[in-house]
Amino acid sequence: MPTLSQPLENAVSLRFAPLACALILAACGGSQPGSEGATNGAEEQVLNVYNWSDYVADDTIANFEAATGIKVNYDVYAENETLETKLVAGGSGYDVVFPSARPFAQRQIRTGLYAQLDKAQLPNLQHLDPDIMEGLTDMDADNAHVVPYMWGTTGLGINVERVTAALGADAPLDSWGLLFDPANASKLASCGIHVLDDEQEAFSAALIWLGQDPNAATPEAIAAVQEVYAAIRPHIRTFNNAEYKDALANGDVCLVMGYSGDIGQVRDVVAEAAESTGRPAPDIRYVIPKEGAVRWMDVIAIPKDARHPGNAHAFINYLMEPEVIADISNHVAYANANLAATDLVDPEIAADPGVYPSEEVRERLVDPALVADDQQRQRVRAWTGIKSGR
Question: Which of 59, 65, 133, 355 is deepest in the core (most CB within 10 A)?
Fold first, then answer.
């Protein structure tokens, strides 16, 4: 996920629970046959990780390195497509990656881009929510290739004071209409609107607003989405996945389409910054619109050509330590899939309905679906045209 600017990021206070001693033993699990970079039957103490930006706690990597002696080379990306391009090209050099489950990991598993997990090296699988694990089996039979990491929703991030100042006290803060109704968008243009540069998320949101199947990719559905965005395109400041958090935190925009945890991070950072200066904090709020929203899940996988699969298993097992994953949730403000970690998550985050929605709200969430290749190409072309205003 996108990273906040360093001055703001420094305002976040974090805690970290001690690592389990078993982690050290797990990291010493033997190498797998044929792994490159191995010496005398053992892997070199190196791990190459490719993850979304700002998607671990500040000390996650340092603590893993200290506990295992494994040097981590950590790179970040902002779009699933960037990861997929590297995987398809082959020889990426990465040992652990974090794709979104649907449709990306789903497609990548089908095309054989990931190694099968050695569950004997992953004893912490026992901590994961069986319902979430079962929910992944339609795309990954027997949970053979991916491990759930974080999950969340895509909704609206709102600076409440500025939005209500523009629209009035009765502004529909709980609806996609805040963004997609041209009458609202025109009034919010002056305080700034950002939309994700993500064809899947943006199409689904517009279709939900229209009351249509959010995974539809027919020519009619594409045309309907184009019409929705054409009506508000003049009022959208930019489309991006990497800048909107800073923009919302700095007051440069008042409304964003964004990820649940990202907005939670912004809220916490501006609150702490305000406290340090003695000024009141702006009311930054994440909303799952009443019409529904996309639910997504990011997973962990080992590329088939990974050079350090043993170290990769050790890292994945480490991330499944309840204390470790709870600390990450406390930093990134996303829900994790680890049942044993729930009681360790900051109560404010665990009780936040934007992070852990109620059952009633969950019934209105939808999972992304894999669409046919030709339909996907048509949606991508349409999205390019929407962004350019054509």
Answer: 355
How many whole angstroms separate alpha carbon 216 and alpha carbon 337? 28
The distance of Cα 111 from the centroid of its chain, to the nearest Å, equals 23
Round to whole Å and give the CA distance between 182 and 117.
48
For residue 117, give the amino acid letter: L
What is d(CA 55, CA 21) in angstroms, rounded to the nearest whole number?
Answer: 24
The answer to whether the Cα torsion of 158, 164, 168, 169 is positive or negative is positive
| pLDDT digit string, tens, across residues 239-264 | 998 789 999 999 999 999 999 989 98
Q: Closest Cα to residue 123, out of 51, 27, 49?
A: 27
137's tokens: 């089996």
**Which stretch of DSSP H or E encloses residue 122?**
none
* Tokens of residue 228, six digits: 């929705």
Q: How far apart are CA 64 and CA 73, in angstroms?
A: 12
Per the listing, tokens 């497509």 go with 81
Q: What angle do CA 22, 39, 49 make, to 5 degrees?
A: 55
Amino acid at 59: D
Rounded CA-CA distance 213/4 in Å is 33
Amino acid of residue 18: P
pLDDT tens for each residue of 206-217 = 999 999 999 999
**In the block, which residue shows the tokens 């934007």?**
354
Residue (of 380, 194, 176, 381) closest to 294 by Cα position: 176
Phi-psi region at 34: left, alpha or beta (left = phi > 0; alpha = psi -120 to 50): left
Contacts of 226 (CB under 8 A, 6+ apart): 382, 385, 386
CA-wise closest residue to 51 among 22, 27, 88, 86: 86
Which amino acid, residue 317?
Answer: N
Which amino acid, one-letter code, is at 192?
G
Whole-model pTM: value is: 0.79
Q: How far apart are CA 300 and CA 56, in angstroms?
A: 13
Expressed in angstroms, the distance from the first to the final Cα of the chain is 29
The DSSP bridge pattern shows strands 255-259 and 193-195 to be parallel
